[in-house]
Description:
Blueprint: E1 7-16, E2 19-28, E3 53-56, E4 59-62, H1 65-76, E5 85-90, E6 93-95, H2 100-126, H3 134-142, H4 149-178, E7 183-187, E8 194-204, E9 207-211, E10 259-263, E11 266-270, E12 274-276, E13 281-283, E14 287-291, E15 297-305, E16 313-323, H5 328-332
Parallel strand pairs: 6-14, 6-16
Antiparallel strand pairs: 1-2, 3-4, 5-7, 7-13, 8-11, 8-12, 8-15, 9-14, 10-11, 15-16
Helix pairs in contact: 2-4
Amino acid sequence: MGEFSRYQFTYVPVDTDEGKRHVMLVDVSPPRWGDLIHPLHKEYESFRPGVVFHRYAGKTEPARPAEIYALTERARRATKRVNVDVTMTSGAVAVLDPTERVRRTVTDFLREDMVGQIAAADEKKKAAAPHPSGYFRSLQVLWPDSRSPEAFRHEVDEYLRDFDLAMQHALAQAVGTAGTPLALTLTNPGEDNLTKVQVVLSLPGTVSAHVTADAEDEVDWPHQPAEYGSGTIPVLGGYPGRLGIQPAAYQLPSLNSPDIEQQDGRTLIRYAPVNLRPHETVALDPITVYSSQEADSFVFEWRATATNVSSKVQRSLTIPAQRLELDLRDVLRPAFGIDDDAEQEEDGGERACSAP
């Protein structure tokens, strides 16, 4: 009959011609890998102990050979476990100086510059004079900037959020070029085929991770919102004031790339599931990892599961640290159109720049 913990009994009152009666409903939990075959334990009608019943469409009958083989395979799975190993072929956690202050300085500078357009537009409106080209002026009146100051500020906030993500992407790309991305391999040392093996790598929350990009790929910097208060002239092409749909701040990874997210103070990397033949080894996608925490090494944890066997395997990896002298300001110079030979200003060494 199996374990009674797998059954749940509920009595439901039912009104009949003979009065109210209680009918017992039995909820049976679905079978699990490793469950034994449950034969008949005592004689029942014409069936002797040991008979295995199977539920077919609309009827219950003694199991046929195909069902017996399937039940045997289900029971045999109890001895099967995920047997894989994850090893590091190369890689290090790049240790950098903190970048939050530099990123905040850049976004604050851009916000002040763009939000200042609101006051400038109001002043321009007050001091407006007849335009020498009345035709084009009339077109701008027909298609004025319809954004409110609040809507423009919201657009600026979205732009700066994307710009900050792009800065992080540019930094990760520089780290991937100057440092050593984490390269892992997944091995099936056993004799069984493993289906859809997924590896989840858990990193300390102080470690950031990005899909390693090609060094030649350009960061897809977002476009700035159109200048506040500027009218649109459709006949001259485009709608510069209509920027409701912004390009992505960075190129999205392919569908087969790992998923990276923050969860419960940890950085989780979920690699795409792969099928593994016996004794097969596959390379997992390289990941760029970096941190501002000073350390000689970092301990990562990984776990692996498969869809055709039960249980999971869970172990740890010690990843060495690699100190990198990367300055985010130097990484961002191409984005602001700053040439390597640009001269510093006398009042503080800041270089003149224009946002992308």
